[in-house]
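Lab notebook page, bench 4
Experiment: in silico fold of construct C2
Operator: M.H.
Input chain length: 220 residues
Purpose: comparison with the prior construct
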Amino acid sequence: MNKDEFGGDKKVGTSLLSYPENNFKNWAVPLLPSWVQTDHLTMLTLVWSLINISIAFFIKEHPNLLWMVSLMILLQYLSDLFDGELGRQRNTGLIKWGFYMDHFLDYIFLCSLVFVGYMISPNGLEPWYFGLLVILGSFMVNSFLSFGATNEFSIYHYGIGPTETRIVFIGINTYIIYSGTNKFYILLPTLTIICFIGLAINTYQIQKRLRIEDMKKKGI
């Protein structure tokens, strides 16, 4: 890729599910109606996020509503998976607009999921939710800052990408429906600490790579 060419639409790396995922979208996208456009699919993430936020206010009294949240995760996965591929296959993609809006709305959707978790959790876990949101958001910030420095956009960490993360969220929802939230006092801090360790390692690796590149340019 030319170093002056925008690389935001070309993700670097793969995740555990990249291969079947690519086969699936290559099969499914041509089946979409002609009136469906890439920007329609991108903006649907806002709809799924608003539904999550609305559900959150009733979730503690009706935990079975988490099935609806899991459905929103699935729908957001499909609309997010298809939007860029639709633009590529039909040559109608809005590359820079799509990069900006797609990832901004991904963050909004992430916030809606953390809000659902916050609303269903026992009292006293508020600082952990704040920390989890900061850490998960920092993974996204890391990807964008790294992209700004290298023009290579990567959203995969140790074989884990957005698809695998969505599966984790659906698994958590299912666990809560059947087992409740009594173990959240252990599970939430554990999850937050694991994510923090992953973030620290990821940050170290990125800065190490950039430092080496800078020193090579200086002939050091």
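Observations: Residues 45 and 105 are 6 Å apart (CA to CA). The chain has one domain: 18-217.
Next step: discuss at group meeting.
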